[in-house]
TrEMBL record:
InterPro entries: NA-bd_OB-fold, S1_domain. This is Small subunit ribosomal protein S1. The keyword Hydrolase does not apply. Keywords: Ribonucleoprotein, Ribosomal protein. GO terms for cellular component: ribosome. SUPFAM superfamilies: Nucleic acid-binding proteins (SSF50249). CDD domains: S1_like (cd00164). The lineage of its organism: Bacteria, Bacillati, Actinomycetota, Actinomycetes, Micromonosporales.
Amino acid sequence: MSVTDAAWSAFVARYAVGSVVHGDVVSVVPFGAFVRIGEVDGFAPLREWPAPLEEGAIVPVRIAAIDPDARRFAVHPA
């Protein structure tokens, strides 16, 4: 998903590292999953999760890192 300026600005204005929210698992890959919060997708590393993530699931997550220059963020289980 390509992140628009407006979507990214809204994300960083609303969330900070440590925020706990619910995200939608939009895709699963061998090394993790992509979780959508608002209109932005972040990465959930597989090694952080006690059980496999499934596409379509809504999961509680903690925002672990935000990289504003790359417009990326990572989440861990909440």
